[in-house]
């Protein structure tokens, strides 16, 4: 949904948050770009209050930074912050997999297979948004099976930053294709019930993701500039 499409007043700040979040993830709002609640309110057809609330949430999840009285702007992706974010997610994901595998049923595996099939179709169609959504559903099966509300909340808090990273990764052919293979491998190992092996495999994938992202930085494909 376009950022410029008017928002129903009933949806208010939650919808504004999702619109702005997705615009940042896709790069429509560029890193370093200053954002003003008055300008955004005009574009969205809302008062400034829900926009301010949405911007506060975006600051909390790391997509926007604010210095009162000076600026509110989209944060810039840099190698150091990306590495640290991926390190945290790798640890959380390992815990989720270790906890989930002993509790998984054939139904969970079916959900993972279906999500990966949708992911592969999205990659083939070069539909980065659909690939990101399918990847979310794939990993959500593991988090749901783990049945740890605290873990779920922490991972959910990281999602906007991870989406911003993965959107760039899935925009490359390699980024999508190697993820399809990883998903297939993880399903196979989860089906054996070996939680340790599944967790190690998943952690390896996040490490490989870090290497891929570093190559994008090296090739200046991850550099973002303000408009």
TrEMBL record:
It comes from the Bacteria. Residues 10-77 form the HTH gntR-type domain. PROSITE patterns: HTH_GNTR. The keyword Transcription applies. GO terms for molecular function: DNA binding; DNA-binding transcription factor activity. SMART domains: FCD, HTH_GNTR. The keyword Nucleotidyltransferase does not apply. Keywords: DNA-binding, Transcription, Transcription regulation. This is GntR family transcriptional regulator. It comes from Actinomadura rudentiformis. The lineage of its organism: Bacteria, Bacillati, Actinomycetota, Actinomycetes, Streptosporangiales.
């Amino acid at each position: 949904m376009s950022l410029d499409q008017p928002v129903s007043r009933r949806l208010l700040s939650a919808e504004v948050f999702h619109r702005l979040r997705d615009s940042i993830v896709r790069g429509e709002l560029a890193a370093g770009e200053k954002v003003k609640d008055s300008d955004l309110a005009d574009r969205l057809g809302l008062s400034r209050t829900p926009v301010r609330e949405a911007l506060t949430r975006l600051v909390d999840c790391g997509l926007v930074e604010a210095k009162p009285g000076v600026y509110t702007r989209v944060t810039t992706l840099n190698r150091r912050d990306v590495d640290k974010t991926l390190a945290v997610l790798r640890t959380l994901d390992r815990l989720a997999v270790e906890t989930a595998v002993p509790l998984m049923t054939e139904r969970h595996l079916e959900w993972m297979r279906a999500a990966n099939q949708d992911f592969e179709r999205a990659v083939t169609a070069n539909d980065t948004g659909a690939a990101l959504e399918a990847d979310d559903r794939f990993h959500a099966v593991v988090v749901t099976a783990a049945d740890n509300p605290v873990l779920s909340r922490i991972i959910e808090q990281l999602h906007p930053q991870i989406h911003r990273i993965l959107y760039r990764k899935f925009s490359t052919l390699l980024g999508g294709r190697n993820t399809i293979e990883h998903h297939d491998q993880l399903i196979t190992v989860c089906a054996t019930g070996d939680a340790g092996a599944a967790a190690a495999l998943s952690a390896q994938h996040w490490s490989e993701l870090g290497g891929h992202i570093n190559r994008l930085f090296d090739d200046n494909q991850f550099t973002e500039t303000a408009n």
